[in-house]
Amino acid sequence: MVATAVLGLTTPPTAAADPVATTAVVLRVVDGDTIDIRDDVRGRLRVRLLGIDTPETKKPGYTVGCWGPEATDFAATTMLGQRVALVGDATQDSTDRYGRTLAYLVRADGWDYSVEAARAGTARSYVYHRHPVSRYDAIKSAEDEARTAGRGLWGPPCDGDTASVPS
């Protein structure tokens, strides 16, 4: 919570209480929903972004999903090198089964990557094991806006179909 206060950000009460909240610099974009950061407290971490899913680009043995490279490019263009608040969500685990930190990334200007990736049409809202994230409504609303506008993966050539199949 101290990190978000320093940045002048506000977070939902559930996220503010989560011990993941800290500041970091985005070092590398793995794909549209996985990013490597240098956390001011814990060092280098791999982060799986909460509340969104992007088309596959790096799943071994599978094809690249439609709009996958564009989702990765969006993440790189908007986040690479940025100082961000790494904000957990008390409704979710702090790590996934692969050991990645589960968090939102929010820039100092309040720009929430998960919401804005959905708004740009580079991500869709994602609910893991029937447990929606605390920011689900904002992410889903942004996704609906992109879908209505035919933006990103919701327009041609994907038209919402981003399936990655065994190669």
Automatic annotation (TrEMBL):
An MF annotation (GO) of this entry: hydrolase activity
Highest taxon listed in the record's lineage: Bacteria
Domain TNase-like: 20-156
Assigned keywords, A-Z: Endonuclease, Hydrolase, Nuclease
Matching SUPFAM superfamilies: Staphylococcal nuclease
UniProt-listed SMART domains: SNc
Any single Pfam family the record assigns to this protein: SNase
Membrane-crossing segments per the record: none
Protein name in the entry: Nuclease
Organism, as annotated: Mycolicibacterium hodleri
